[in-house]
Amino acid sequence: MPLENISHIVLVLSGKGGVGKSSITTQLALALSLQGKSVGVLDIDLTGPSIPRFFGIEQSRVKQAPGGWIPVEVHAEQTLPATQHADGAANGTAPQQSYGTRVGALSCMSLGFILPNRGDAVIWRGPKKTAMVRQFLTDVLWPELDFLLVDTPPGTSDEHISLLETLLKTTAATAQLAGAVVVTTPQAIAISDVKKELNFCTKTGVRVLGVVENMAGFVCPNCSECCNVFSKGGGEVMAKDFNVPFLGSVPIDPAFVMLVEEGVRPTYPKGTVVGGKALVEREESVESKDGLLVDKYRECSLAPVFGEFVARLAGDVEARVAA
Ligand SMILES: Nc1ncnc2c1ncn2[C@@H]1O[C@H](COP(=O)(O)OP(=O)(O)OP(=O)(O)O)[C@@H](O)[C@H]1O
Ligand code: SF4
């Protein structure tokens, strides 16, 4: 059973579409990988497989081996070269040097790597979706993984039922199923849908590792004022109501949108070099009035606000999985 190689399986769920499940999944995967974990991402959003785009590897294709599919490698295990931080140089002291961070391997499986054409619509009835999800769980030859993150479609559909039926069938997979990260946006209409997802977790016995509130305010890069575009605080209240951990709020980050639009892989914290792309230093970090972190940054190749939050989230999820 290919899942035997996996230590922890984490589901990323939401009752509502477009709240940022795939964004949180890919950023969480990158952050865990940066902590040296080997990570796999399984995209079971069959009608909207967007994970390849978030990783900037839309053109890739899975390879077929005798025992099943070989997932697409986002990057291999590597040791990042030493980099110089500009902070010291800017204030007249010696530049700081950061030495060789070990980055864990990251691989990915999605229907997007199998469809003949990227724009093809997937118009499948329930049984075909059920069979596809089962095949993703039984026929992908994952390498040894610390974490498999499963990005799901919104709601509680055929894909979710098939996922849990297949996972819960084997005792080993039940033990491996660490729980779910539930993503919401703050406004009431999203919350009421996401509550259904929490009820789904209760009914199916899936542990909720925590709730993430995404798009919680836009922090102005000019004046650090936080504008609560989609209301405020709904995710935290919902987590309290359901007695599950609240993992925190991620503000809207225009740099993140830009990177996804341009097909650039949003990636690691400052000063690191991945895939030959040097990431530019930030100028400073300040706390906005609402306590959301905002970075004033020069030209930058990663989404700083999003990236830093998810790096913290990765630590939090790992601690909860271990508990
Ligand atoms: N914190 C954020 N700041 C800025 N843009 C964001 C943020 N979170 C998500 N986005 C953007 O919002 C859009 C929707 O995000 P995403 O695809 O991750 O949502 P989803 O819940 O996975 O959607 P679906 O329901 O289609 O699976 C994307 O264009 C993404 O780049
Ligand atoms: S909040 Fe920021 S973006 Fe909005 S008007 Fe003020 S300075 Fe401009």
Question: Which ranges are low-confidence, i.e. pLDDT below 50, for 5 or more consecutive residues?
Answer: 83-99, 266-303
The helix fraction, in percent, is 25-40%
Shape: globular
- Secondary structural class: alpha/beta
Count, helices: 10
Rg over CA atoms, rounded to whole Å, is 19 Å
Q: The CATH topology is what?
A: Rossmann fold
Unique ligands:
adenosine-5'-triphosphate, iron/sulfur cluster
GO biological process, one term: iron-sulfur cluster assembly
Keywords: 4Fe-4S, ATP-binding, Cytoplasm, Iron, Iron-sulfur, Metal-binding, Nucleotide-binding
Pfam families: ParA (PF10609)
Family: Belongs to the Mrp/NBP35 ATP-binding proteins family. NUBP2/CFD1 subfamily.
Brief synopsis:
It contains ten helices and 19 strands. It is of the alpha/beta class. The chain has a single domain, classed as Rossmann fold (3-Layer(aba) Sandwich).
Characterise the protein shown here.
The chain has 323 residues and is α/β, with parallel strands linked by helices. It has one domain: Rossmann fold, CATH 3.40.50.300. The chain has 10 helices and 19 strands. The strands form 6 sheets. Strands 1, 2, 5, 10, 11, 12, 13, 14 and 15 form a 9-stranded mixed beta sheet that branches. Helix 1 (21-34) crosses helix 10 and helix 4 (126-138) packs parallel to helix 5. The longest helix has 19 residues, at 304-322. The protein is globular. The structure holds adenosine-5'-triphosphate and iron/sulfur cluster. Iron/sulfur cluster binds next to loops. It is found in: Cytoplasm. InterPro entries: Mrp-like_CS (IPR000808), Mrp/NBP35_ATP-bd (IPR019591), NUBP2/Cfd1_eukaryotes (IPR028600), P-loop_NTPase (IPR027417), YlxH/NBP35 (IPR033756). Belongs to the Mrp/NBP35 ATP-binding proteins family. NUBP2/CFD1 subfamily.
